[in-house]
Amino acid sequence: MKGKGWPKWARFMIKDWYYEDKGRAHDEFGEVFLVVSPGDLVCYVAAAKTAMNITSSQRKVFLKMREKTKMLDLFGPSVATTNGDAWRFHLRITLPPFGDALRQLVWVETRRQASMLAKAWTKNGVGQQLKHGIYLLTVNVASLANFGRRGDWTDGPENTPPNHKLSLAAAITLLNDYLGQILLMPKWLLAAQGVTEPDGRTGFTNKEIKGNLFLFLAAGYETTANSMLSSCIFLALHGDIQDRIIEEVDCVHHQAIEVSRVELSYTDDMPKFRYLTSFMYESLRVFTIVQSITRKVYEPQNLLVHDSSTGETRNVQLPAGTAVIINNVALHFLPLNWPSPHVLEPRRWLVSEPNTFDPLEKPTAAQEADMAAGTTPIPNHERGTFMAFNEGLRACLGRIFAKAEFVAFFAHMLRDHRFELDEDVSPADVERIMRLRSGGSVVTLTPSENVRVRLVPRKK
Ligand code: HEM
Fold it and tell me: What are the binding positions for heme in this chain (predicted)?
């Protein structure tokens, strides 16, 4: 080691190494490689087809890791922490509410919250409040969707119910701030109540209801908040992208006014936000909020490995107890999957073959035609090349919920305002922070610094 820095394997011990590494480990050791350590065997995967073999496996072999799910089962088991038949049972109950009615509610409530937030930010300035404001807005939307409780965009005493010390939003924000410590706390300290589970039941027990409510907050709130937070910063950095979104926002509003509609609606207007939706996917590709998908095999298991460059396949046997980690960041930064991967370019998602669009080349005639027609489905990438929401059996249940919230938020904010960096903030420093550093949240990737932006009235 003398004078040669850290040994190569040391990187795997650093939390969030995926983000800072951007797939370099796979350039060195291969698309699929095994780390053998005294504690564990870990198989890292950055090949799209192999990743899909893992996430789409119908056989009950690549399972959520018990060590991890046990920690998340703080209040009870949930759809995200169960495997096999128990998971199917949870899914049957939790999936139906995720329909159009919920998305419409999310759309309307996000616009209402965004309007309060815009007023506060234009009056008092954003200052250090960007993260706080967006987190609070997301909590309020989640609390209406999950608990039916509407809170205004403030966590002040006026929102605290009688006989309580905190508003719901303040309690959730606090829970999130201390999630790391709470998850590691012995269960008995949390004074969990014993609940008898009836046999042959058709509904959830109290424990399962609590488990799922906690999970929906944990899975849905910080992820969505961080995707909106990082996107505000990207917009302040990339004025050209922001200009195009503003053009789209104005155009959709104009079309609504022409048919005498004052407010934008989820059903009529959400599908028109093609560029804004593409921006969401692109910022999730570059700023990979969920950096990895973790599974484990509890019995010896064959893994069908596809070589992406030759197309050859081979079977490798994984010993029982091997952790299998799909490296989402590497999949998002592989030039084979995404040409010139470091370039933030929403237009990739507007063409029929997003994985062939090179932002550093002039678009082909076919790509120009796709963009002009505006009819290709979004997203339309090759499966396994974009894993921000996971793909396959255990894909995110809240992805359309998150998309409705994201689009409603930016469509509202950019109607009369734009995001800019504070005058004394260096764009080059912010770009470096965003691309190279992870903020170290327990669950998700978060910007590592509270970047100072301004919400300024648009010149019309
Ligand atoms: C931008 C926002 C979001 C991102 C990036 C995201 C990402 C993900 C990812 C990567 C997974 C798969 C984890 C794995 O397989 O190990 C997942 C699962 C899940 N997500 Fe999301 N999520 C987002 C928003 C939401 C929202 C808003 C909700 C709920 C309201 C939600 C609910 C869930 C649930 C319940 C699962 C577990 C599904 C299962 O295991 O069957 N997510 N999410």
Answer: 396
* Index of the ligand 1 atom closest to the CA of residue 146: 30
* Residue 32 identity: V
Contact yes or no for 110/413 (Cβ under 8 A): no
Instruction: Report residues whose beta carbon is within 6 angstroms of any ligand 1 atom.
Output: 79-80, 215-216, 219-220, 223-224, 227, 284, 289-290, 293, 388-390, 394, 396-398, 401-402
Residue nearest to atom 40 of ligand 1 (CA): 80
- Would you say domain 82-190+202-274+399-460 falls under CATH 1.10.630.10? yes
DSSP 8-state assignment for residue 98: G
Q: How buried is 383 (Cβ within 10 angstroms: 0-12 exposed, 13-18 middle, 19+ buried)?
A: middle
Long-range contacts of 341-345 (CB under 8 A, 24+ apart): 342/286, 342/435, 344/234, 344/238, 344/241, 344/282, 344/283, 344/286, 345/282
Residue minimizing CA distance to atom 9 of ligand 1: 389
Is the bond preceding residue 319 a cis peptide, omega within 30 degrees? no
Sign of CA dihedral 402, 403, 409, 414: positive
User: Which pair of structure tokens corresponds to residue 249?
Assistant: 């926002």
The tens place of each residue's pLDDT in the chain, 460 residues long, gives 455 677 878 888 888 889 989 999 999 999 999 999 888 899 999 999 999 999 987 667 899 998 888 878 878 899 999 998 889 888 988 888 888 899 999 999 999 999 999 998 988 888 778 988 999 899 889 888 877 777 765 655 666 666 776 666 666 666 666 655 555 544 444 443 333 344 566 677 878 888 888 888 878 888 999 999 999 999 999 999 999 999 999 999 999 999 999 899 999 999 999 999 999 999 999 999 999 999 999 999 999 998 888 889 999 999 999 999 999 999 999 999 999 999 999 999 999 999 999 999 999 999 999 999 999 999 999 999 999 999 989 999 999 999 999 999 999 999 999 999 999 999 999 999 999 887 766 678 888 888 899 999 998 7
Q: Which residue ranges make up each domain of the chain?
A: 82-190+202-274+399-460
Mutate to test the pocket of ligand 1, among 18, 65, 110, 223 (most ligand atoms within 8 A of CB): 223
State in Å: Cα 226 to ligand 1 middle: 13
Distance CA 449, CA 63 (A): 35
How many angstroms does the Cα of residue 397 sit away from the middle of ligand 1? 6
